[in-house]
């Protein structure tokens, strides 16, 4: 996967295929326009082959795609820097991070919005260093200290997306268990709750608490993340995290099902204002 993670590669290929079709071109005609063999266009569109940013630019020009925001997004998916000049910093951790985690970070760094249900722990983008260390130590047993330090460093570096220009828009529904579960001890948990209060006041963050009183809900099956991209919904993806791997759902019916589930969770959760009070009250009693 020289030129991009598997998920990005498939997403990019599907979008390029849609743009070619909209331009009224066959894959053979597109290949002739850019001076390639037809098989190269087919491999790119099916995600079986990586594609360089320069090649994406050639295809977009051939398809008459002029929308700057869409062009930039597709170029970034191909491995180019974004308009802010941000490099793919996670490449420096290639030897430490598994491919699925790198895929996740890549999508997170390029998405315009992220919706997440968390049932056990605070979302990674909102964790304090001490909380992140305690969670990582608990979920990956036997880690040497230097590797633990690296994983925490990566977790904190991911949080830069909330300070980017423009920032990632984060909507999170937290089960009350997230606030009640004491991770790392009373002091660590108290500081983490304070951090959530601070985050809840940010304009790019929408936090809602799903209290125990809400009873059973559609989210009891487990946490999930929905990444959305500002230029096109065709690139949206759902991520289900497992102990040893992550599952990426890209079908429209899966996206619709999880979007409807998240909307339902937001309806049953406390409002952002009441959630802020709930978190602050929990922090005061911690």
UniProtKB/TrEMBL annotation:
Organism superkingdom: Bacteria
UniProt cross-references to InterPro entries, sorted A to Z: Cro/C1-type_HTH (IPR001387), DUF5753 (IPR043917), Lambda_DNA-bd_dom_sf (IPR010982)
Signal peptide positions on this chain: none
Domain HTH cro/C1-type: 16-70
Protein name per UniProt: Helix-turn-helix domain-containing protein
